[in-house]
Amino acid sequence: MSKDLSRYRKEYLKGVLIEEDLPENPIKLFSDWFINADSKSNEIEPNAMSLSAIDLNGVPITRVVLLKKFSNDGFVFCTNYSSTKGKSITKNPNVCMSFFWSSIEQQVIINGMASKVSEADSDNYFNSRPIGSRLGAIISNQSEIIPSREYLENKLKKNNQENNSVKRPKNWGGYIVDPTSIEFWQGRENRLHDRILYKKENNIWNYVRLSP
After folding, report:
1. pLDDT in tens, 109-162
2. pTM score of the predicted model
3. Is 195 a catalytic residue?
């Protein structure tokens, strides 16, 4: 089976990224871009990101997860620590996160080191989830083979509780990614996109412009 996709093409005309407008701290620029994506774009979940890691066999893996928090300390997401990505991060904490907000023609790529957040923070993130999502985290042995969808739904029925006392399983929690580099991409006309790369050395951020 073959399909030619060359007709899918558009011009990028919605923004510019110039040095005169750049802050010293890329977290400030990320915050500005995220607020813009949240308020002015058509993105349903602007906090959705592609998370890439290296699995136990040295093969790259990618999954879409949701960003839960960001600050100067780093970027937080939550997952099952026993999942494929959780095991991968345990072995190799180097990860890459990518945000693409197509409607405003912007992309951010973040490289950094992931480490677990505190038990208290994981509890807080877990307790902020709807009851159904908490139960789902409890019954799902993420990434393991299961016999059927019915098997999963039966487990949910057995564990269903109509209260908010569901406790966080120990194999579920948050990671915080300490960024070492952050690239900002702004689509431009004729594919001459703006690319600004921030890199952190000795806790000091510096940036350069990259050729598109």
Report:
1. 999 999 999 999 999 999 999 888 888 888 888 888 989 999 888 888 887 755
2. 0.92
3. no
Report whether 129 contacts 143 (CB < 8 A).
no
In angstroms, the CA 80 to CA 58 distance is 20
Domain ranges of the chain: 19-130+170-210
Amino acid at 107: Q
Q: How far is residue 53 from each of residues 11, 64, 84, 98, 179, measured CA to CA in Å?
A: 31, 12, 10, 12, 14
CATH class of 19-130+170-210: mainly beta
* Pairing, β 194-201 against β 172-186: antiparallel
131-139 and 119-127 helices, crossing angle to 10°: 120
CB neighbour list of residue 17: distance below 8 Å, 6 or more residues apart: 184, 186, 194, 196
**DSSP category for residue 212:** -
Q: Residue 212 half-sphere exposure, CB side, CA atoms within 13 Å?
A: 12
For residue 39, give the amino acid letter: S
Active site residue: 168, 191, 195, 209, which one? 191
